[in-house]
Amino acid sequence: MRSLPLALRTMLIAFVPVCAALTVSFFAIRSAVSDLVKAGLRQNLRENQEAVETVRVGAEARCQKLIASLKDHPAMRAATGALADGEDATPQAVNAAEKQLSILNRTLQFDALILSSAGRKSLAGVQRLPEGEKPLKGAFLPGVLSGGSRELADLERGVYEFVTVPIEIGSEPVAYLSAGQKFDARTYAGAGHAVLLRDGVIAQSGVPAVENGTLEKELAAKCANTGLDCEVGAGGDTFLVTNIAGDGKSRYRVLNLQSMDRASQRFLHEVLKVFTVVAVATLALVFVLSLLGSQSVAKPLAGLLSTLRHAQETGQLRGGLQTRWGTAEVDQLAEAFNQAAESIAGKQKELDKAYHEFVESMARTLDARDPYTAGHSLRVAHYSRAVGAELGLPERDLEVIETGARLHDIGKIGIPDAVLQKAGRLTDDEFKIIKMHPQIGKRMLKRVGGFEAYLPVIEYHHENHDGTGYPYGMRGKDIPLSARIVHVADAYDAMTSHRTYRKAMPHEKALQILRRCGGTQFDPEVVHAFAKLFPADKSPINEKDLPIQMFA
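RE: above sequence
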């Protein structure tokens, strides 16, 4: 995180929490909407089931009326009359009754039609199958579902639902007529899925892709012995279970299962689609605002850091930061930094002025001790800067070379006057003393703050390119470039200046010596640059062309 750019970090700090909040809100809203939808769906399913049940009761009542109207039908009278002996009817009477029931059912088109005794024992019946009608043989006992006329019974090839009405003579029932349709769980519950339980075990299920064993366990755990609504989970779906017929005490029980997840899926999809659009728009807005906000903070700080890095590299602190960023604290920081930079710049100018005055005073002190070399350091500094510029050095290096050249002989302050101001040639011992001035100069300025950059010029300006110089015998590129430049400028000025022991050489002769000694005493590249600046047909700069002092 710390390695990321400041603007990106600032944006992420503002953007990520909003994304997290929207994500949490998304799941919270999704859960709340899902619960709300399921609650509404549950209510709608209950109302729908009540409406279906009302229709079913009405249809049952109409069916009862239809069947009740048959008791005076000639075929019905013939069937009842054939079974006049009731439960002890003869086979001939049963066959006759079955024949009359078959005739009657060809019009009614029921799946089964049964005539039973007053004791509810099956006497005769017919069953309509795909291959045709056939008599029902043997007794059967319907399972009462609701305590009324609706009954279920196991017959050949399935379970049938019956509506039963009494056949009365006077006020006493002498027989019962039951008309039935084959029970089909796949179509029984209309929009839902019907499940038929026989003694608590699933006999038929209209629920697709759900194993009966799994569904039985859920129903037994959550919906046993209750006629109220319940919820079960099976096949990765949640079902609302309503009781259509029967209860926990009945042998048969019919349940209606409605998938709440599938019913709510479309509505949830629309809600989440709207939420997604809103969330994307919100994130886009937050992203833009976070980006703008991060820029308002990061950009001035980046400018501040850039300025500080520049100050670290150059040693100069500059201000000029923009102070209108739209953030009060950032504006105040930029303004305070600008003020601090201006104050430091003012103090730096004062320090530079004092520093330059100190350098100038030391150079004048040297010139005062050796009147014959007065102006020498000033000329060497001028030549050295010109050569450095010809070599393409940056301004900062040119300033170091110029000031170093101004101070290159400062060590001569420590040389005795008898040696320094001697009119004739020096003896070997006296020359050894003179050769100590580079090291003396280094020791003088080493502990003075701000002079570190000039020490190479002061210490190495008498080192020769071939290693024959002093004080260390350095050679070639091991000698700092600034010292090599000052060495050439120093030698040229020494040759073209008057001394007590000789006259000044002409410019052309001094230039010839420099060229001849290029590669041995002097760096040939530096000599080439010097000769290019001051060719043989061009007179060197006159003393009057130089400034009175280097640091005015």
